[in-house]
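FORM 7B - TANDEM STRUCTURE REPORT

SECTION 1: FIRST PROTEIN
SEQUENCE AND TOKENS:
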Amino acid sequence: MNIDSKIAILCITSNGRSLACKIKRSLNDGDIYFINNKRDENSLDDNEVISKYLEEDVEIYTVKKRLKFFVEDIFDKYEYILFIMATGIVVRTIAPLVTSKFSDPAILVTDEKGSNIISLLSGHMGGANEMTLHISDLINSNPVITTATDINKKSSLDIIAKKLNGHIVNFRDNVLDVNAMLVNGDAVGLYIDGEYNIDTRGFTVLDNSKSLESSISSDEELKKINLNTIVVISNKENLQIDKYYEDKYRIIKVTPRDIVIGIGCRRDTESHLLQDSLEDFLIKNNIDINSIKEIGSIEVKKDEKAIIDLSENLNVPFRVLSVEEISQVDYLFEKSEWVKKSVGVYSVAEPVAHLLSDGNVIIEKNKYKGITFSVGRLKIWYM
């Protein structure tokens, strides 16, 4: 079973199948599975139990397997699963499979007439709420969303983190605590270090035209409310706040993953040297290592062990760019004839950072022992 779509649409009646086709056409995405459970679940493998046919212009898979066993097969293969059937059936089917709101797929349920569509599981992190609203608009149905922050028209820390692809230490505990405080009307400060376009409803927003410490110390309104928790959106390693305020407030940092690193290095550079050099570079430029989204270099470096090891250690992708791609922009940066003779372009780190960040280089070339780094920043605040 080859899966290219993000959403699986499961139905058990002919009316449900018609609605599934309508939804797939509207989304321009989705795998439709029509469940026919007359066959014994242990009798056939996937190739035998699934057949494909066209209903008008829509591709549909017929599944001759019991629903609960088929859902087991696909539960971790899709970002979203939409069930067109009674909610009770869905609850009993997915109950043994549910593990965590931070890893489960988004589960949506609608009746076969599409009158109501329910965000059942993974409303925030999985995106079920957002998809529920989207599909309800497409098919003119009533969206049913029950997450407390949404019904109280408040923002939520997990949604902010998701939008920014952000890193939070002790993610689960901090998300649960902050969201509960927002729902209960408790004061939670929010300092946005950058031009990030996020939902601030329910937060006490601090003045980001000043430093974090200046904003806290000079805000007379903060002294009038019982504020002890501040969420800080920043990709800086050091927030440069006095220990007095660190002790007074619970600071929860959300680190957006919006930094990309262009790398040039000599052949057979030692892995530890590249790692140590990058860490030193990040400290000197006050960049949180958790903000790195991607690293990249020229195609001749695709097998460079040090960069591959760095990618694995950082748990980020290593993107390889061709000479042709780099040569389109290398004229923008300082030229090196030696680099040109060696790899076919005038420079590597800066044009790679330029390409990875869609032209937003924030730190130009920095040299170490046979290593160069350049930094770009993705404009995720526009997304």
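SECTION 2: SECOND PROTEIN
SEQUENCE AND TOKENS:
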Amino acid sequence: MALTNFGLLTNEQKTVWSMDLWKQARNMSFVNKFLGKGPNSLIQHITELKKSEKGARAVITLLADLTGDGVAGDRTLEGNEEAMQTFDQVIRIDQLRHANRHEGKMADQKSVVEFRGNSRDVLAYWLADRIDQMAFSALGGRSFTLKPSGAARVGSDLANLEFAADVSAPSTKRMLRWDNVNGTLKDSASGSNTSAAIVNTGAVGGSDFPAWKLFVQLKAYAKDRYIRGVSGEGGEETYHAFLTPQAMARLKMDPDYMNNLRYSSQTNKNDALFTGTSVKVDGIYLHEFRHVPNVSQGISGTNMYGSGLNLNGSQVLFCGAQALGMADIGAPEWNEKGFDYDNSQGIAVGKILGFLKPKFGTIYEANTVEDFGVLSCYVAQ
């Protein structure tokens, strides 16, 4: 039978396949767990374009804290009001597309349906995985020319996306290093040297594995610098830490962490020892995820850690509210095409999206521009 039915889906049918793919991709995407509409979200989800003089744009809005102390008693307030400062940051958007192609005859309509279903499944997984990769690369400041593992992307077009140019390294006072030997968190003020000498990846030692003391100090560091947590149940302020599986394995070898985890298990409804890859201890959610930037497949002598650039390491990303913005404009576009007189078929999907790690001239850091809601700490793994 000729394949006259392939590629002749109505617009309504294409919409059904497109929405089905997007639903499947959203369910598989790790970052989907952290999306939210408002400023109390770890990843602020922008789904509509905002009209302005410069056209329609995807915008994330940051609110500055008020600096004044108000007036006392019946002293005149009128004329002493403080202007509320808002900072709009534009998330550049672009289209990411991919397709697959069946290279043989498909004898009947059943085969066409199976090809559509299989294409939906593999393209949904591809889209979910690339969204996760790009989100964590943007959050950690990893160039899209590299994979999360530190390996080079060969033949990849990700670096040509419009928003790839906005990926930036951790800002000076949000870039940290864990010194496990001394149990101290190093920042740009540590010692007599500048941040480049103290906290860069070359300063990481072979025993600087994550330990529970690291997260205690990261939480204090974030609070001291007014990095707002995400409000949870009962108004509890919580933070989210993301580690690679290797870094999480190292953390589980720390007796202090395991003792705190056991205590947390006794006080929570769900046993934190057995609930999978995410646990909550002392107001900190710890998540294990493979796409947290690391150098497990990095190039020795080029982009690995340690003084010899040959040490396996990773980032620990410690996040509060509005750590990342994600523009997600519309459902994916589904297209079908026949090749060689419909002897073979192809299905393509395209998604318009974008990512941005917000930065902010904070009054708590002498108005220096810093990453708004994320700390990046280098560790060995």
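SECTION 3: OBSERVATIONS ON SECOND PROTEIN
The chain has a mean pLDDT of 87.
The longest strand covers residues 324-339.

SECTION 4: SIGNATURE
Preparer initials: ____
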